[in-house]
Write a structure and sequence with these properties.
Elements (H helix, E strand, L loop, with lengths): L1 H11 L8 E2 L7 H8 L4 E2 L4 H11 L34 H14 L6 E6 L4 H6 L19 H9 L2 E5 L15 E2 L9 H10 L2 E4 L6 H5 L4 E5 L12 E5 L1 E4 L8 H6 L8 H8 L3 E4 L3 H17 L7 H19 L16 E2 L1 H5 L8
Parallel strand pairs: 1-2, 3-4, 3-6, 4-5, 6-7, 7-8, 8-11
Antiparallel strand pairs: 9-10
Length: 362
């Protein structure tokens, strides 16, 4: 998504520049890399050292940053372009027919639609990045067991539910024939990952890389997001829930003011996790009941083509979000013109807000 967002931003701001895109050391999807290569010039990973040098020295010499085309948070569509732009790396008719044929040959159940479940765990990083310690990201990992009630609910409503992922160490056999552990099926492929993003009706995700193709094709999302700062408020058809925090010392659950006061809205750095989560606070991850209610709301909005109508509780939430996150970003030189016409397109699950009234304690 970083490249897709960058392409649209470059066109929007009429930026004339020569792009030098460099392959990373690890490529997660070869098929999509070739898709990118069909439209853009990509350079070998041997040029990564050049990029890393420019990035390193740009911290000391800020003028060098103008040569770094993509910002670090490029996956975030701050200018709200994706909803109004055509898919740049779109699928063609031949690819559609190929994907349909693979589905037909491997899925015997009758279903009315497809829902992707993109649930992050530690398996992918452990397999492909063995020399890196990823423990600091444990707060982003979930057990698929927490998603079973939501998966069963959608399967009973005649949706085909696919557990996504390039690698999951545990193979799961589901009782409902409409739920498939696609990540461990022989017909799983980089191409099908891309095709299923196009073919699905909506996606339930923990904000992880495997959901990028559903987002590429602008599909509705139900997202479990931590930290709050990572809410995709700039895209329509996104409904979110997030975890709570508890003081270790007295067990009290924090309200929104306390979350912002303690900088728990941006727990994405190793030092912050060590100082905050490990010493003073406990993250209470979303449970199966909350995930089920999220899936129900996404389904209803999708089937009834509902727009996100914001309640008084949600308006309160977004007002706090704007004050503590958006306004502070406006003060940064890079983001000064970022939010001139910005609105909060995304939504917070209504059931979640009603059952977490402690967030709004004054």
């Amino acid at each position: 998504m970083r490249t897709e967002v960058y392409i649209h931003e470059k066109d929007f701001f009429k930026i004339k520049a020569i792009d030098i895109l460099i392959i990373n050391d690890h490529v997660s999807n070869i098929y999509f890399l070739n898709k990118i290569k069909s439209k853009l010039k990509i350079f070998s990973s041997i040029f990564l050292d050049t990029y890393k040098l420019i990035f390193f020295f740009s911290e000391k010499f800020p003028n060098l940053k103008k040569h770094l085309g993509m910002r670090e948070d490029q996956q975030k569509d701050f200018y709200q372009l994706l909803d109004n732009k055509k898919v740049y790396f779109d699928i063609n008719a031949e690819e559609v027919e190929k994907g349909k044929e693979i589905l037909k040959n491997n899925v015997k159940a009758n279903y009315k639609g497809i829902v992707l479940f993109c649930v992050r765990n530690e398996d992918y990083n452990k397999k492909f990045f063995k020399n890196t310690n990823w423990n600091y990201l444990d707060y982003r990992n979930y057990s698929f067991d927490d998603f079973l009630p939501a998966a069963n609910f959608l399967a009973e409503k005649n949706y085909l539910v696919l557990r996504m992922g390039k690698y999951n160490s545990n193979k799961i056999k589901f009782e409902n024939k409409n739920i498939i552990d696609y990540s461990n099926e022989g017909w799983r492929s980089d191409f099908m990952d891309y095709f299923l993003g196009y073919a699905c009706d909506f996606c339930i995700t923990t904000h992880t890389g495997m959901d990028c193709f559903a987002r590429l094709f602008r599909k509705p999302f139900g997202a479990i997001v931590n930290p709050i700062e990572d809410l995709f408020y700039f895209q329509k058809n996104w409904i979110h829930i997030f975890g709570n925090f508890r003081y270790k010392e007295n067990g009290k659950i924090l309200n929104l003011n306390e979350i912002y006061l303690n900088n728990l809205h941006k727990i994405d750095k190793i030092d912050m996790i060590d100082k905050l989560l490990n010493k003073k606070f406990i993250l209470i991850k979303n449970n199966s009941e909350q995930i089920l209610e999220l899936a129900k709301e996404v389904k209803i909005n999708y089937e009834d083509n509902r727009k996100n109508i914001k309640s008084s509780l949600e308006n309160y939430f977004w007002n706090k979000f704007e004050k503590n996150i958006v306004k502070k970003m406006k003060n940064e030189k890079y983001h000064q013109k970022l939010f001139s016409s910005n609105t909060f397109k995304g939504a917070i699950c209504n059931d979640f807000l009603q059952k977490n009234n402690h967030l709004f304690d004054r």
